[in-house]
Amino acid sequence: MSHTTMTSRRDHRAGRLAMGSRALVPRARAARLHGWLFLSPALAAYGLFVLWPLITSLRYSLYSWDGVTAARWVGLDNYRTVFSDSALLSVLGHAFQLIIYFSLIPVTLGLIVAAVMRRVVVGRLGTVARTVLFLPQVVPLVAAGIAWNWVLSSNGAVNQILSAIGLGGITRAWLGDFTYALPAVGVIGVWVLLGFCTVLLLVGMSKIDPVLYEAAQLDGAGPIKEFLNITLPSLRQEIGVCVTVTVIAALSAFDIVFIATSGGPGDATMVPGLEIYQLAFYNREVGLASALAVVLMLLVLVCVLPIQWFVNRGDVRA
Amino acid sequence: MRPARTTRLSGAALLLVLIAWTLLPFASLFTAALHQSGTYPSGISWPAHPHWDNFVQAFNVANMATIFKSSSLIVLGAVPVTVLIASMAGFALGQLQVAGGRFVFLLFLLGLTLPFEGIIVPLYYEIEHLGFLDTRWAIILPLTGLFMPFGVFWMRAHFVNMPLELSEAASIDGAGTWQQFWRVHVPLARPAVVSLAILTTVWTWNQFLLAIVLVNDPTERTMAGALGAFQGDWGTNVPLLSAGSLLILAPMILIYFIFQRQFISALLQGSVKG
Fold it and tell me: Are residues B132 and B267 in the same domain?
């Protein structure tokens, strides 16, 4: 995220080294060797438990394998299945629908709430709201899933509130409803991620030079114009981070879905992470699960890299 | 210029609604936990006779003491090693001139966006092959690897901002690379190290996927993994499940309210730099 600043720092340092460190040359050579020694434990852990499984994932994805008997080479067949099987395609579709709830709503609402905390409700209530809204970030997602599973059940608090305000007609078991289960899972995502986005955007807003706002007020700009012309453009970095983190959370959702719905009713809330888990460990289709895993990892990259590019490109121009 | 009174009131109302909405699941769990075990409570309601003993029962049936110990052991196994080797690598990439360091750094960056589900299947067979299945090592070892992209990125960001003169001065004083690292740089890296330790502790404690895939016995799992098993066993007993969930949540929430400031800043910095 801060690639540009890093590069310039490095160049600066290289220049300094070239000028002033002739006496240190033998030491520098030793340091170069030591560098690799210092890197090696991290590389070993990363290689053994991330890179190696990553390569193995690619390899598995080209086989038909039940995890026990001999694997059979099938080339790209598993990938063809991922992109042609309607059930698997709808699983990928669900992941994208979740982006609306996990990403779009928390970031938009977070902007509004942060603006309110910063400019409208300053003081104790703002501080309390910040602390409370951030709380879901430290709670295990499993616990969020259990709590919401109960809140959204037919006997739960949501239906109780709806009945109390005269909307008793629309109450239902939200997570068991074919139409509403996925949006209901989305609501849990909003609950988890809203505070994170709000607080991050709030920190970003506190870095904006107040002079900008004073100037805008002298020009007679209203709060909305202020928000659009000053706040929003100044927050590009923070919005970029929020979108990146939340999009990854949406595409790789697992814990919440596993606990709240197990993908049901039917396959209404089945998401890629859970499908990989079930394919590999219940259906014993390790090859297909691995192909889906590779597709998921690529999807995340395809979604995240343009966001990063957009955020950083803006940086260079500014 | 202060915002108009109506604006302030509606702003305050919005915040109050959101506070209530955030606390709703906790309140709902809490009141449900006080109903008689085995009954089906209705929404948020205070029972005529609160059954505080549900917490005792949940503590016992969930093996709370055991899984608390197990979770702590996993944190102790994963976090210090992660922080140490990530600091060493960050130091190498930020302070030492390493041939090919740029490539190594990019290799670590590659892992930053990786969803754990992407590699969980081969990880299972690898851990099985190594003979660690159903032990805490099955969670500790992969987590150490999975934390590396973020950990190295995080510590490098710190070390790259420290003046090179520090190392130079130390090396003129005759300190070897290890002494430079351990005596000079690590003490100065305290804030970055503490943040990384907080983050990785939360992530370990809450780790679910690795726990349910790689460890069958809930008493060898993380808190989150054990909670998953508890839901499997007691899912239909809402009061007991609620009491158990609250007990499992309690330590993290307590720590959050004590170290609120550090928590928020660590989690935020973590995401900005990540």
Answer: yes
Full-model pTM: 0.87
Tokens of A117: 């905390």
Quote the Cα angle for A303-A307-A309, to 5°: 120
Mean pLDDT across chain A? 86
Give the residue, B77 or A264, on which the prediction is more confident: B77
Preferred mutation among A146, A196, A259 to probe B, highest tally of B CBs within 10 A = A146
Q: Distance between terminal CA atoms of chain B?
A: 37
Query: Which of B18, B71, B117, B204 to mutate to test binding with chain A, by most A CBs within 10 Å of its CB?
Result: B117
What is the per-residue pLDDT for B73?
95
Q: Which residues of A touch B109 (CB under 8 A)?
A: none
Cβ-Cβ contacts under 8 Å for A37 (sequence gap 6 or more):
none
Low-confidence ranges of chain B (pLDDT < 50): 274
Residue A225 has phi, psi (to 5 degrees) of -65, -40
Question: Which 8-state DSSP code applies to residue A165?
Answer: T
Cβ proximity of B219 and B67 under 8 Å: yes
pLDDT on residue B41: 85
CA B230 to each of CA A282, B219, B224, B241, B242: distance values in angstroms, whole numbers, following the listed order: 20, 11, 10, 7, 10
B107 in reach of chain A (CB within 8 A)? yes
Burial of A318 (0-12, 13-18, 19+ CB in 10 A): exposed
Question: B113 and B34 in one domain?
Answer: no
Contact: B253, A138; criterion CB under 8 Å: yes
Q: Does B251 contact chain A (CB < 8 Å)?
A: no
CB contact under 8 A, A248 and B209: no
The topology under which CATH files domain A78-317 is MetI-like fold (1.10.3720)
pLDDT digits (tens, 9 = 90+) for A92-122: 999 999 999 999 999 999 999 998 888 777 7
Helices then strands, counting H and E runs in chain A, come out as 17, 2
Contact B115/A at CB under 8 A: yes
Q: Are residues B131 and B29 in the same domain?
A: no
Query: CA quadruple B165, B170, B174, B178: dihedral positive or negative?
Result: negative
Based on the domain organization, do B120 and B243 belong to the same domain?
A: yes
Q: What is the mean pLDDT of residues A43-53?
A: 96
DSSP assignment of A227-288: IIIIIHHHTHHHHHHHHHHHHHHHHT--HHHHHHTTT-STTTT--HHHHHHHHHHTS--HHH
Question: Which of A5, A10, A40, A46 is the best substitution to test chain B (most B C-beta atoms within 10 A)?
Answer: A46
Same domain, B81 and B204: yes
Residue B151 and residue B262 in one domain:
yes
